[in-house]
Structure formats: structure tokens, C-alpha cells
Amino acid sequence: MPEDDFDIQGFARDINELLILSALRSEPKHGYQIVLDIENESNGLFRFRHGTLYPILHRLEKEGLIRGTWSKDVGRRKKVYSLTGKGRRHLSGETGRVEDVVSRLVRVLRGPDQAPA
Amino acid sequence: MPEDDFDIQGFARDINELLILSALRSEPKHGYQIVLDIENESNGLFRFRHGTLYPILHRLEKEGLIRGTWSKDVGRRKKVYSLTGKGRRHLSGETGRVEDVVSRLVRVLRGPDQAPA
DNA sequence: GTGGTTATATCGTGACTCTATATATCGGCC
DNA sequence: GGCCGATATATAGAGTCACGATATAACCAC
After folding, report:
1. Which residue of B has its CA nearest to A25?
2. Minimal Cα–Cα distance from B73 to chain A, Å?
3. Are B108 and A46 inside 8 Å of each other by CB?
4. pLDDT tens per residue, chain A (117 residues)?
5. Closest chain B CA to residue A112
């Protein structure tokens, strides 16, 4: 009985969300910093544009996975986001699900007649 | 210098295309059979709907990765697709690229402070 | 010859990213 | 002390793609 109900579009969306959440795992950051850190940690592979980043941040905040607060002490306005408990649980759970899906994906792509190296 | 130019939407599209190409690796098949085989080999995880499958098949044929021929010997019309040489090269090359991307993705998601189990 | 299954095809909708544009503030420069 | 590029957040418009609904047609059972 197929339970998973896999959706390729939702999968792509989840990947973007998880990348952002993972960037916040160590400490709270503002949007611009998140982009720079992800780009740096992935050696330039994953790079967010402005028009992609901010809608996702707003969505994550709306879902209660992150919480954003304006820092006013510095003159330049920055919205600093931090992981909520819900967001932290979501991150670890969904990361495991992504790992499961990609391992099964690679297995199907490689096929049965393919020797493991 | 970031060379990769990663695109999450193209990545999702590629996954669908590669799943179909991999189903044709062993032997030529018609559309309906491709869906059943992928669903079977992935234990029900990856399931294509009609409205998803046929546009992708047409696209792959247009790009020269597969070649479709109508089998007329049987009364029921079936369009049987087979991998072209270009398609076979594309499959192995892109599969390697997908494996690379997902391994780097998981590494970023897990983070540096995560011990490898 | 009617109905259910196999099989291919397309159109419309909706979801999502991406490009372009807008706004605002800081620091350096002269 | 005003200009300008870099930092930083925001949104609207366009384009792309999967997905649901619908259409067509031939096979088989009865």
C-alpha cells in the first residue's frame, strides 16, 4: 500500500525551506546573511535570489517554524530570524525524510543491473 | 567561483525525466508500462499521473533522448519508446550529477556540528 | 452491444521560482 | 554635507511546470 504520496514540486519547495532552516540552526540570522552562509557552506551550489528568499521566509514565519524580530539598536533595519522549537523539530524530521527519498531515488535511477562501483 | 548555476525547478524536472529514462534502460516500453514499472521499483514512492507522463515523454522525444514508434501489429495502439544513444549518455551523466547534488545537499542540511552517526 | 480496463492525448488551473523594480539606510569620498 | 555604491527588505509580474479533468479509442468479458 503506497502511503507516501510523493510530490515533486513540494519536494523542491521543501529543499529550499530546509536549506534556510538549516542555516539558522547554529544562531539567529537576518535574510542577507542566510543567503551568504548557504552559498558559502555549499561552495556556491545553492544560491538564493531576493525574490526567492523573502517569500519563503514569510511563509516559514507564518507557519511558525521561524520567528523574526526587527533589530532596532543598529540604524540599518534588519529582521533577524531564529528557529522555533517547532522549526527545529521540523528540520530534523524532514531532513531524514529527504535523505530517505533521495536514497530511494538514486537506487531506482541506478537500477538493479548496476553493480555498486 | 560558483560554476554550477543550480536551479531547483530544473532539478525537479530533471528527476522526473531521469526516472522515465531509467525505466527504459533495460528494454523499450510504452507509457503505461513505464508508470507501472517506476511505481513498482520505487515501492510506490514515485507515481506518474497521465497529465504528467505524456508531456514529459513528448519533451524527451523532441530532445532526441528517446524515440517512439507506434506498434500496429496489435490492434490496441501503443507507442513504444526506446532509449537513444544520446538518451543513454544523458541518463548516466545526469544521474551522476544528481548524486553529487544530493550528497552536497544532505551535507549542508546535516551541518558541520553533526556527527556522522 | 454494453461496460470496464488499457492506453494515449490535451487543456486549464494553480503553485512556485525568478526577473525586475522599489524603498531605505549606512559608509566612504571629496 | 551631499553624492553614490553596498547593504537590506519587499513585492508585483512573468514564465514554467506538474497536476486534475476530460476526451478518445480499442480490447475483453458476458
Report:
1. B111
2. 30
3. yes
4. 334 578 999 999 999 999 999 999 999 999 989 999 999 899 889 999 989 999 999 999 999 999 999 886 666 788 999 999 999 999 999 999 999 999 999 999 998 765 554
5. B41
Q: What angle, rounded to 10 degrees, do the helices at B31-41 and B8-23 form?
A: 100
∠ CA(A19), CA(A57), CA(A84), 5° rounding?
75
Question: In this structure, are strands B29-30 and A66-71 parallel, antiparallel, or unpaired?
Answer: unpaired
Q: Which domains does chain B have, with CATH numbers?
A: 9-97 (1.10.10.10)
Residue pair B67/B81 in contact by the 8 Å Cβ criterion = yes
**First CA to last CA distance, chain B:** 32
Which residue ranges have CB below 7 A from strand D? A 7-9, 30-33, 50-51, 54-55, 57-58, 76-80; B 9-10, 12-13, 16, 48-52, 55-56, 74-77
